[in-house]
Amino acid sequence: MVLVFVMSADKFKDRHGFWTNTIAREEYILKGNSSCPGCTAMIALRHIFKAAGPDTFVLVGACCAVVCEGVYPNTCMALPTLDT
């Protein structure tokens, strides 16, 4: 289980207050993750992190995502992360 906390949801609204459907170009899953090639969990996390943006805190439960992110200091997530 991976919980993603977004600090502010206002960035998803345009200047008229409507929700936008754009996804950022920034990558928050870095090279060197230890997941299997084509891992659907990492692909899903990649898109979730792009939608959530840089003001995000990731709380990772005991699952394969803990192994996929790698060992400190060479983790693959460019966001603050807490493994439980």
Task: Give an overview in words.
- There is one protein chain.
- By secondary structure, this protein is an alpha+beta fold.
- The protein has one domain.
- 21% of the residues lie in helices and 15% in strands.
- The chain is built from two helices and three strands, in the order βαβαβ.
- It has helices at residues 40-52, 64-68, and strands spanning 2-6, 56-60, 81-83.
- A three-stranded mixed sheet has the order 1-2-3, covered by helices on one side.
- The longest helix has 13 residues, at 40-52.
> Which sequence of strands runs across the widest sheet?
1-2-3
- The N- and C-terminal alpha carbons lie at a distance of 10 Å
Q: What's the rounded overall pLDDT mean?
A: 78
**Low-confidence stretches at least 5 residues in length (pLDDT < 50)?**
none
SSE layout and pairings?
Blueprint: E1 2-6, H1 40-52, E2 56-60, H2 64-68, E3 81-83
Parallel strand pairs: 2-3
Antiparallel strand pairs: 1-2
Short note summarizing the structure:
One of its GO terms (molecular function) is oxidoreductase activity. This protein is α+β, with helices and mostly antiparallel strands. It is 21% helix and 15% strand.
Search tags:
PorB-like; 84 residues; alpha+beta; 3 strands; oxidoreductase; Pyruvate synthase subunit beta; three-stranded mixed sheet; oxidoreductase activity; 2 helices
